[in-house]
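Box 3.1 A note on notation
Throughout this textbook, protein chains are presented in two layers. The first layer is the amino acid sequence; the second is a token string describing backbone geometry. Keep the layers aligned when reading.
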Amino acid sequence: MKKGSVTIFSLLSMMLVVSALFALLEAGRFQGMKRLTTLQTQTALESVFAEYNTVLWEEYRLLACKQSNVNLLMEENVADRLLEDRFVTNFYQFRVEEIEQQGYTRLTDGEGRAYIQAAAGYMEKNLSYEMAKKIYNQYEGIKSIQENNDFDFGDIEDALKRIKEEASKESAGMVQNEDAGEESINTAKKKENPLEIIQNLQKKGVLSLVIKDTSELSEKEMDISNAVSKRDLPEAYLPMPEEADWYTKVLFQQYLLTYLSSYTEEKEHALNYELEYLLGGKATDIANMKTVVNQILALRETANFLYLSSNPQKVEEARLLAVAIAGASLNPAIIYVVKNAVLAAWAFAESVLDLRTLLTGGKIALLKSNTTWTLDVDYISSIGKGYAKAKNCSNGLGYKDYVGILLLFQEEEQLAKRAMDVQEQTLRKRYEEEGIYLEDWIFDVNVQVSYGYNPVFFSIHRVLPSWKYRIIVQEQFGYGYE
């Protein structure tokens, strides 16, 4: 048997080689753990956010999961499932020590700005930039009309008062005879005062004028005393975006028009007229419908009065009718006041016909022309009889287009809160559960997961058992639409 020997130098050299080898193995193990813990955290977050609210997605195309489920699901997906893998358990030997939510974004954060960004982010892939610009240009055009017009809108009540003061006997002879049958236009001019007729129709309310059968209107009602728009919402954990730019406003407006119900497109939600609720903010569908009808009527009156006032032929027709109404009074000041009142009454009457067309699925041009104008001045008094409608314009705007324009005039935060009002109520209705609050639902979270491990290829832990190492993984994850 041969004997061998080794020098102390060789032993020291071998120790250095083995130490270097073990150091490399430990470094490789660390890099493997680092990659695996990051991957495991990301996978767990994906699993957590897969638990989104299906009703909110199916009805409104919004993705959100309940905030209280995040930690529980993270523990299930990171810790429990990780230990099922024997290779990971035996080789890497790390464990989850702490899961901490460092911040998250609720749907209600930023007074509705987070909700706006979520909705706009979804719509960005469904609406081209060019189409959004076209929609915004329409809004700018209407805004310019409303803010910069310097026309003298006629005051019907003042005109009637002036007529009675100047020519009481003649004006009394022009009061409408309700018992009279069909008469010629010339006879009607003598017995009917269209200004008085329009004034009476305005006092009765517009809804019955523009909807043929008001009994078919939705009678749904919801409790808004504790709605999102009425509650004190918690402050945001993460920074919120500043005021939305024009593109985000249009994207958000188109989201609302697409996924919320309206008079012309009812859905089985908490309210049938959700878009109308955004503008009215009332508890019932009927009350919100009244608000929207009046707002569209005011919009159409402005546009129609603009057309009439800029058309010399129409102005002359209004002046001749004003002379006939004023009777014996040839005072130019009186004629001017009455003429403007006739133009206002004419614009109102045409706007009523416009609304009837819009509410039955037709389209009305934003600014009319001779070919798209419907009502002759002699028939102003007849709008309360029957259900005549304005001419349909194939290249005009529909009811939802006008609602969309009105939405662009509103504050985005208020629209967002009211949209969440109806969505929250719809969730409660579907789940038959009153304890659903949208501030409990998040679409973005910032998580820190701490993983602990001990060395395998070094024996430090035998000397100091309390020594251990940590890998801290930070991930921000949410429902992005990139």
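The longest helix spans residues 8-49. The CA atoms of residues 122 and 287 lie 31 Å apart.
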